[in-house]
Amino acid sequence: xxxxxxxxxxxxxxxxxxxxxxxxxxxxxxxxxxxxxxxxxxxxxxxxxxxxxxxxxxxxxxxxxxxxxxxxxxxxxxxxxxxxxxxxxxxxxxxxxxxxxxxxxxxxxxxxxxxxxxxxxxxxxxxxxxxxxxxxxxxxxxxxxxxxxxxxxxxxxxxxxxxxxxxxxxxxxxxxxxxxxxxxxxxxxxxxxxxxxxxxxxxxxxxxxxxxxxxxxxxxxxxxxxxxxxxxxxxxxxxxxxxxxxxxxxxxxxxxxxxxxxxxxxxxxxxxxxxxxxxxxxxxxxxxxxxxxxxxxxxxxxxxxxxxxxxxxxxxxxxxxxxxxxxxxxxxxxxxxxxxxxxxxxxxxxxxxxxxxxxxxxxxxxxxxxxxxxxxxxxxxxxxxxxxxxxxxxxxxxxxxxxxxxxxxxxxxxxxxxxxxxxxxxxxxxxxxxxxxxxxxxxxxx
Length: 446
What we know:
GO terms for molecular function: transmembrane transporter activity. It is a single chain. This protein has helices spanning 3-21, 28-33, 43-54, 57-70, 72-79, 83-97, 104-112, 114-141, 149-197, 204-209, 219-228, 237-240, 248-278, 285-293, 295-327, 334-354, 363-368, 373-377, 386-403, 419-444. With 446 residues, it is mainly alpha-helical. The chain has one domain: Sodium/glucose cotransporter, CATH 1.20.1730.10. The relative contact order is 0.18.
């Protein structure tokens, strides 16, 4: 039995098991809010769900590749994004407890009006759309070359099977399966690391001494990730939906633990890339290491990709259905929720077949939403409605300067890869904050 057949077996068997084990949602609370037996998820369940829903296939591929490029510095740099959990956990706690708001949409509508809420909804809908194709493409790449029939069939089958159990239970299914997937991820990661460290020529010292702590060799990305962490979490409904389903204290505790443990998971996964670097491997770090260790480890790495992609995909489906049904108030109904899940699954898969130009699902969109920083960081300060638009649109403009590579080089003060990303974010976040407060200053000086 060749490796592709084993991979098909893993995808089909694991998805069918998750479908059978997933709870069937019978009420809107079960489907949209993950209420089970009239109880919200506890801190252990919520922490596991948060971590695995963010350790998606794209991110662990990136972590391994950054380990290959920059050593352990690359892994630490990418783990910087997990500060997002701590920021979101602390700020949303205040928004809920002090502000009394029950959702991000309610907060934005109350403070900035329906137009602001609509613009925000467009941003997060694009984010969810990106999540679908960026994760399923990683799965496809493990089954065949881009554009091959194996590649496309893997994407179709994987999406349909994940959609099946997501439709069955909504957010209840998503959080329930997240716990199983988190346990699986932890075990599989330990198996890989055990194999890597059992090699005599590779030790913990090799990991610690790999890479250089300089801007051009990883720190550009690290500081960009930290800056983006003050806006990034708020445009990701997969994360923010989970911030309103349990009590404020349980939520804050879960988010803080997820910040620490999620970062550790990413750094540990980047060790695969560090090992690849010591061996002089080129290409996709995780794939090359898997091949070097033989069929079993390659299958373990593939299975990690499958579980992490599935956990993100089911969360994306449930977040999109909640966005339409609850946040935008279209139809608060399970049937409508299920139909919207199917819609995003189809729409999100289309770019793969149209061979659309693929943008990074994280760094680029992370820059485009830096305008959300002052909106949430200074949530309790009263400002005119215009402040929202000035900040958000400025963030989008800076994001586009990065996409089209038109940011002035004179404003970039470090060298190397990700230097433009860092400085676009530094200047962008300064501009967004200043423009956010200008209408307030003008009003008070009248």
